[in-house]
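Field notebook, page 309. I keep forgetting to write these up properly, so this time I am using the form the group agreed on. The chain and the ligand, magnesium ion, are recorded exactly as supplied. Prediction of the bound pose follows.
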Amino acid sequence: MLSEFSLIDKFFKNKTLPNAQTRLGIGDDCALLSIPSGYELAITTDTMVENVHFFPDANPAQLGHKLLAVNLSDLAAMGAKPLAVTLALTLPKVDENWLHEFSTGFLNLAQQHNVDLIGGDTTKGALTLTVQAMGLVPAGKALKRSNAQVGNLIFMSGFLGDAGLGLKIMQGQKFDAENALTRFHQPTPRIATGLALRDVANACIDISDGLVSDLGHILKQSGVGATVELEKLPLSNEVKNYLQQTGDWQMPLISGDDYELCFTVSPQNAHRIPENCTHIGFIDSQAGLRLKKDGQIQTFSAKGYEHFS
Ligand code: ADP
Ligand code: MG
């Protein structure tokens, strides 16, 4: 069986291209990064735990992709350019096939975004996967949750509810939706969109727990309210079919895992938003989130996913 160190050498060391900021990568007690002057380091971490975030028989290549994608999505939501990541693996056993596939999924996405894997930790225990991701953003330009202004327009990238539909299929619902499954297993971090929103958006968040929950964070931290128009939500044909067949109109609003960006923009900047984004509502001064359907405010009870609740 591979030792801890040969495992790191075989699957993780020297597998990504170092960038100008990496002074020291895998192999010492710490990695060293230099930060160009005029920039800030954006730092985020996300963990995925077996049976909580993924099913025990999950495809390891897809897991590797998703683990990195959810972390890069947080960088995107701040308008940060991905730079480097660390990877902490807790594994019940050393399974070389599993590690080969997992690292391939992980490293392929890292390569796509020029992200350098600069360190990590490897331990034995219940399968738990953690990434810390670091990115660069010009000083003072990060897209925070707390900066939405009354009168801003609300936009989101891509489509809403695909991953939620994918999850329903994984949970056994019979529905023909290949794209939704892919979106659930292999989300796309909206890095280019986040970069394009620097100097354009006021507040931004990535949709990981559901639009209602995540937009709710922007509203609370900015001290404002919002009205979202359900007819404007960008829905794929698969999700439209699902809604038609089930009447479950709340699903796209409360399901997580889409990893699209939701952001607010002043009307003067509305012409500068990227092409893949859709206007879905307005920031107003009345606290809370109102959902409008056919011109009527809907009563809404469901919540996004919360651990410990
Ligand atoms: P330490 O005992 O100082 O924490 P380790 O023996 O845990 O160091 O790790 C040796 C080197 O390998 C370190 O540079 C560490 O960052 C790196 N490393 C350990 N596990 C991983 C991993 N899963 N992926 C990438 N790098 C790793
Ligand atoms: Mg260690």
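OBSERVATIONS:
- The chain has a mean pLDDT of 95.
- The pocket of magnesium ion (ligand 2) is lined by residues 121 (CB under 6 Å).
FOLLOW-UP: compare against the apo run.
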